[in-house]
TrEMBL record:
<comment type="similarity">
    <text>Belongs to the TRAFAC class YlqF/YawG GTPase family. RsgA subfamily.</text>
</comment>
<dbReference type="InterPro" id="IPR027417">
    <property type="entry name" value="P-loop_NTPase"/>
</dbReference>
<dbReference type="GO" id="GO:0003924">
    <property type="term" value="F:GTPase activity"/>
</dbReference>
<keyword id="KW-0862">Zinc</keyword>
<dbReference type="InterPro" id="IPR012340">
    <property type="entry name" value="NA-bd_OB-fold"/>
</dbReference>
<feature type="binding site">
    <location>
        <position position="290"/>
    </location>
    <ligand>
        <name>Zn(2+)</name>
    </ligand>
</feature>
<feature type="binding site">
    <location>
        <position position="288"/>
    </location>
    <ligand>
        <name>Zn(2+)</name>
    </ligand>
</feature>
<protein>
    <recommendedName>
        <fullName>Small ribosomal subunit biogenesis GTPase RsgA</fullName>
        <ecNumber>3.6.1.-</ecNumber>
    </recommendedName>
</protein>
<keyword id="KW-0699">rRNA-binding</keyword>
<feature type="domain" description="CP-type G">
    <location>
        <begin position="99"/>
        <end position="260"/>
    </location>
</feature>
<keyword id="KW-0479">Metal-binding</keyword>
<dbReference type="InterPro" id="IPR010914">
    <property type="entry name" value="RsgA_GTPase_dom"/>
</dbReference>
<comment type="subunit">
    <text>Monomer. Associates with 30S ribosomal subunit, binds 16S rRNA.</text>
</comment>
<dbReference type="InterPro" id="IPR004881">
    <property type="entry name" value="Ribosome_biogen_GTPase_RsgA"/>
</dbReference>
<feature type="binding site">
    <location>
        <begin position="148"/>
        <end position="151"/>
    </location>
    <ligand>
        <name>GTP</name>
    </ligand>
</feature>
<dbReference type="GO" id="GO:0019843">
    <property type="term" value="F:rRNA binding"/>
</dbReference>
<dbReference type="GO" id="GO:0042274">
    <property type="term" value="P:ribosomal small subunit biogenesis"/>
</dbReference>
Length: 352
């Protein structure tokens, strides 16, 4: 295995030279739990710890290493390294931090492509695909739609579903597959390229773990088909969150990725709902909400069928969520500021 197999490239190497990091080794973070990292190099997997300087200069959580990061390291014990710095990230997938309104948490970095996995049975829902697409657009990760479990339907039903998606989502590759019958896998495997990093997005039960096992050629993730326990259908997550696939490519799959929603998606929404955004320039009012206004170009297009009604409703829903999210950030910032002011006044009054 080489560093390139792990996704290393010339751009990263140039950065390393520019920053005079050549005295350090290079590795990729493959898991993180409470500031304990596992760093992978072509030779080994190390336990990683960040150096004090990195901790002290960190402005916030996102300056700490995350799964997918390239880091400058030095070995200090047989299986241990110190992490000195984090290389610039090409892409970032993040979500709202649990319990912390308006704060973000990085789930993974440097992902090139996301497989948006959806099953053709009960799970099939184009709104949900749009949701994940928006996340991809926000994160600058390129999307590919994987339609799974096609063994459950016939070919004509499949082409019906594919054209339904294509009506609303243009220019995204759709690959129908079945883990069960292995149909579609040959084509699927050809799009996975060496040096590229992928992730799996999709709701619970669509077959992500099964797919991962199929791609890795090993049983890495336990899928529970029969489970007597209370948490039925839950898999046991293996320790490695980044793995090098059998033939080529790197796949990141961690618990956070499975719970990801939409965080800050302004630009993302604009790309996903490009047609709506374009039309809204023709609305009579600049601040048109496209709900009740007269001479609203968007509403007109929905009426005439030019814009899909469900796509429009999904757009409004995501806009509302985004606004809510942005106002919680603004509130949190204001609180911080007020607190800062209070401290300042306090210090001042103590001086006087
Ligand atoms: N018929 C059929 N069933 C499948 C296919 N792929 C996966 N399954 C089944 O779907 C169920 C859920 O699969 P998982 O791989 O655990 O789904 P997951 O997306 O990892 O779900 P979480 O672990 O909850 O996120 C299991 O019972 C699988 O055996 C398929 O191609 N066809
Ligand atoms: Zn409008």
């Amino acid at each position: 295995m080489t560093l390139e197999d792990l996704g290393y490239n010339l751009e990263l190497e140039n950065y390393r030279k520019d920053q005079n990091l050549e005295c350090f080794g290079v590795g990729r973070v493959i898991s993180e739990h409470k500031e304990r990292y596992v760093v992978k190099t072509p030779e080994k997997e190390y336990e990683g710890e960040i150096v004090g300087n990195l901790r002290f200069t960190a402005q916030n959580r996102s300056d700490f290493p995350a799964v997918g990061d390239w880091v400058a390291i030095s070995e200090y014990d047989n299986n241990k390294v110190l992490i000195h710095s984090v290389f610039p990230r090409k892409t970032i997938i993040e979500r709202q931090a649990v319990g912390k309104q308006g704060e973000k948490q990085i789930i993974a970095t440097n992902i090139d492509y996301a497989f948006i996995v959806q099953a053709v049975d009960r799970d099939f829902n184009i709104n949900r695909i749009e949701r994940y697409l928006t996340l991809c657009n926000t994160s600058k990760v390129k999307p590919i739609i994987i339609l799974n479990k096609i063994d459950l339907i016939n070919d004509s039903k499949l082409s019906e579903l594919v054209s339904k998606i294509q009506e609303r989502i243009k220019q995204v590759l759709i690959i129908p597959i079945s883990n069960e019958s292995q149909k579609g896998f040959e084509k699927f495997k050809t799009i996975i390229e060496k040096g590229n990093t992928y992730c799996l997005l999709g709701s619970s039960g669509v077959g992500k773990s099964t797919l991962l096992n199929n791609l890795s050629g090993k049983q890495l993730m336990k899928t529970n088909t029969i489970s007597a326990s209370t948490n039925k259908g839950r898999h046991v997550t293996s320790h490695r969150e980044l793995l090098v696939l059998e033939n080529s490519g790197i796949l990141i799959d961690n618990p956070g990725m499975r719970e990801v929603g939409i965080a800050d998606s302004k630009d993302g929404l604009e790309i996903t709902f490009n047609a709506i955004i374009e039309l809204s320039k023709d609305c009579k009012f600049k601040d048109c909400t496209h709900t009740t206004e007269v001479d609203c170009a968007v509403l007109k297009a929905v009426e005439s069928g030019e814009i899909d009604k469900s796509s429009y409703e999904n757009f409004l829903k995501m806009e509302r969520e985004k606004e809510h999210f942005e106002s919680t950030i603004a509130e949190a910032r204001k609180k911080d500021k007020d607190f800062g002011k209070m401290i300042k006044n306090y210090k001042k009054s103590n001086k006087d």
